[in-house]
Amino acid sequence: MRAQLMWRTLPSLVLGLLFLSTPVMGSCLDKDQELLRQLQKQADIMQRTSMLLNPYIQSQGLDKDGLKEHCRERPGTFPSKEALQRLSRQELLRALNTMLDHVLHRLMALQQDIPKAQDLETVNRAKQNIRGFKNNIHCMAQLLPGSSERTEPPPIGPGTSPSPTPTPDTFQRRLEGCRFLHGYHRFMHSVGQVFREWAESPSRSRRHSPRRGLWKGARRVPLSRGNKRLLLRGQLPR
Amino acid sequence: MLTLQTWIVHVLFIFFTTESVGELLEPCGYIKPESPVVQLGSNFTAVCVLKEKCMDYFHVNASYIFWKTNHLTVPKEQYTTINKTASSVTFTDTSSLNTQLTCNIRTFGQIDQNVYGIRIISGLPPEKPKNLSCIVNEGKKMMCQWDPGRETYLETNFTLKSEWATEKFADCKTKRDTPTSCTVDYSPVYFVNTEVWVEAENALGKVTSDHINFDPVDKVKPNPPHNLSVSNSEELSSILKLTWINSSIQDFIRLKYNIQYRTRDSSVWNQIPPEDTASTRSSFTVQDLKPFTEYVFRIRCMKEDGKGFWSDWSEEASGITYEDRPSKAPSFWYKIEPSHTHGYRSVQLIWKTLPPFEANGKILDYEVTLTRWKSRLQNYTVNETKWTVNITNDRYIATLTVRNLVGKSDAAVLTIPAYDFKATRPVRDLKAFPKDNMLWVEWTAPNESVNKYILEWCVLSDKSPCIPDWQQEDGLVHRTYLRGNLAESKCYLITVTPVFADGPGSPESIKAYLKQAPPSKGPTVRTKKVGKNEAVLEWDQLPVDVQNGFIRNYTIFYRTIIGNETAVNVDSSHTEYTLSSLTSDTLYMVRMAAYTDEGGKDGPEFTFTTPKFAQGEIEAIVVPVCLAFLLTTLLGVLFCFNKRDLIKKHIWPNVPDPSKSHIAQWSPHTPPRHNFNSKDQMYSDGNFTDVSVVEIEAANDKKPFPEDLKSLDLFKKEKISTEGHSSGIGGSSCMSSSRPSISSSDENESAQNTSGTVQYSTVVHSGYRHQVPSVQVFSRSESTQPLLDSEERPEDLQLVENTESSAGSFPRQQYFKQNCSQRDTSPDISHFERSKQVSSVNEEDFVRLKQQMSDISKPFEAGQMKMFQEISVADAFGPHTDGLVEGFETVGMEAAVDEGMPKSYLPQTVRRGGYMPQ
């Protein structure tokens, strides 16, 4: 029993420490539903190809028939919706945090191939949105009753490693960038759907979660100062 | 090597220079704190520390220190000598914002030397900023503003800080010109809560506002919808469809809208109910609009949940609803015009164009029908709003419909009565009054049912004819306003005619003003009649064009030059007024003002003067005076007429003309001297050699006695017979002019005319009128000219002296003695004349007369004439008359006999144009 308690408490502590490693700044929303709605809205925005992919295709000269078909997500770059659905909330938040860090790194790499200031502004705006999304993940994580039991990213199937493959020529590099962005938007679309499922039917999310244990053991773990350490209603571990 | 040496020299130079300057400028001490900033109202203490070196040099210590603020010495009570080298000064309740504080020492007992100086800055710490708020204009950076609080008097920096839970943004420093707002450098990220606060900091402190935490999307002010367009529907004339493009914010948030609309000619906006536009959309259909009406729309949006700000209004867009059938029949009326065709009338049918909201479309034409009693219908299509037709004197029914693209209106029906129709049943209690800048007309309906009312009106003017405008009102209406373009200060003649089913009723009229004003000019007053104490003024009624309102009354102002003005109010119906109690012979100035309900206007000033006398007063004075004068004159004339002899004697006695004088020789012995002078030539025909005049006085104008006349005739005859001629003096002497005289040389007629007297010539030597000669002499002569020529002919005088020894001392006297053979007994002419008569008659009578004359000689002046007459009557016409005549004859004979004796005759020289002085 004691060991079980420890098993339940540890992931929350780890997740909490993970996000607490960031400097303590502004306070987060203490309303989980509102925060979840914000995440959904952000995901809706970030999934729009007009926010990043289309400007990139246009700027890189990839908006030609025949080329668009090749601008498809390379399988395995981003986790699938099903993979995300299988994750617990803590795992999902952790996975999202990790994935978005990779996206940021990749966008910084792509910026080198974007000469136009207007397109650079688009990329910067996308990066700002990703940082804002990560902020909300951070706040959501603080509202969750537990944290990941592992510091490692959860095994979410293919695409767990979105690191770009070194490409020899520019065209291939642009095409890879295009495929990456395509995958990014698809990924954010899936994230949005998962968040929507969270809001609509939290229990169903848990049902699909392979690690039900993640939702257990985390009971009113105090989080950062700004939050009131409220647990998501109806999502308390059984 | 050389370079090294040069460098060393430079270094040494700089070193020594710096050292020396440092010593020169090194202060004698210093003040702590160096740059103090003090809070207003707080205490402040400064310490001045002297350097040992300086103390030794000047032989001073801290007790020698004195402080100055802004060059004024601080009282020593505020000093504190801390030790030998340090002295402090304390200020309580600092209020000066900027103070110069110096530490000074007095050296050698008299020289003040400044040791050190600082500047104290005072102010207040910043207050906590309040009311921090932010706005995110879509597409722009976030801008926040706040209330900075009180004035600090110090340079205060405001910093807007913002951060996420995981990230901190760059500070936003306010600009100097906008210290209460700041726009961040980064683009806001929606749906990420951001924490924002303001830090205010100056030298006295730092303070932070309350933190606000918000989602930037809740602070958005969206861009307004654009490309707003309006389209109508042919199926429905009451709707318009709006379409627009939302701003890109709709990708992030849901929107709600405000849609407003108005008709083109209106300025009031109507708003679509907000609940109908509470969700994101890009089109909207507005219903319940009027057909064929242009509407203007505008739209704005904001976040659906009401958080954030409304966008600005979009650009306006307009659209016209589709046409519909005219909703109403037009106003319809007629005018009868005289026709030259017997049995016909010229009728002008007139109607009004429907307003757009009733026309519901573009009017294509009008359809008029005319139906005479029991005859077929006649249709006419007219494009104008009037139509003239000749109709018989029968009764007609006219209808009018208006047509647009969609259809026709209902028909307006009008009955044109027969020629002999007598209109009756007028409206009652017709009133017209202005209200709310409109001219309202109100009436009481006739007892019978009225189909409609026709209101006609026109401007009354003396300059232009009455051109009526008109409007139609429903039969149930009894009050309306005139919907024409009415002008202020114009008199409107308003006529209301009820229209019944069988024809129009009797019209009723009334005058009214939309708005009255004072008259444009005042009445011109003038006098109709001016009396001594009153004046009747009159004036003309003002023309209607200058009345500008209903003339309510007149006021007459009148005054004298020095008097106060008097005002008299006169009813507007009058055109004359009598001013009474005026002062006579006074200039009055009068003017007149006419008043409407809105004020009055003075007319020109008129002056008049009241007369000094009332009418008839002068006549009452002048006529009696004139009458009295005339009467007096008449009496005077009568008196003069009656007393003309007397007046003549005193005023214009006969003056003898010397040029016609002759010397008559009484003595028959004295020969006539025909060649005596040139005048004698006139009578030198031998007919005028002797002068013999017998003068007979008839007292009291009595005719001479027949005996006298007889004797006179005899005398004349004798004279003619003896002398052949006689010379009578035609004129009378001055003393006998009024007496009738008879000259012996005159014709018989003249003898008859002078039958009252027998004139004999008298030479007056007693002077003219009241001149008294020194010696009374007389001689018979035809002339009344005095004989003065003795001076010119002294030889004649000498002859006289030789011939008459008894002559007196004066030649003339001798001469007369010679001629008359008698003595001068009296200087009086009367006596002389009388004695002349008497002497030749009787010596005794002469003596007696001489005595009488001596008795009466004194009262000569007054009683001269009377005495003379009495004597003449008593003596000349007495019993001695015959003797007198005889005496004359004797003398005449002597003159004729002595014709050859020139010494006895004294010729006289007559000066032309006068007579010699006596």
UniProtKB/TrEMBL annotation, chain A:
Keywords carried by this UniProt record: Cytokine, Secreted, Signal
Subcellular location: Secreted
Biased amino acid composition, Pro residues: 153-167
BP term (GO), one: oncostatin-M-mediated signaling pathway
A Pfam family: LIF_OSM
GO cellular component labels: extracellular space
GO molecular function: cytokine activity; oncostatin-M receptor binding
SMART domains: LIF_OSM
Keyword Signal appears in the UniProt entry: yes
Leader sequence segment: 1-26
Name used for this protein in its record: Oncostatin-M
Automatic annotation (TrEMBL), chain B:
A Pfam family reported for this protein in Swiss-Prot or TrEMBL: LIFR_D4
Keyword Lipid biosynthesis: no
Ranges of compositional bias, category Polar residues: 777-787
SMART domains reported for this sequence: FN3 (SM00060)
Membrane topology category: Single-pass type I membrane protein
Region called Disordered, residue ranges: 660-681, 722-757, 777-797
Gene3D superfamilies the record matches: Immunoglobulins
Main location, first listed in the record: membrane
Biological process terms in GO annotation: cell surface receptor signaling pathway via JAK-STAT; glycogen metabolic process; intestinal epithelial cell development; negative regulation of neuron apoptotic process; positive regulation of adaptive immune response; positive regulation of astrocyte differentiation; positive regulation of Notch signaling pathway; positive regulation of osteoblast differentiation
Top-level lineage group: Eukaryota
Start-end of Low complexity biased regions: 732-745
Protein name: Interleukin-6 receptor subunit beta
Species of the source: Mustela putorius furo
The organism's taxonomic lineage, starting at the top: Eukaryota, Metazoa, Chordata, Craniata, Vertebrata
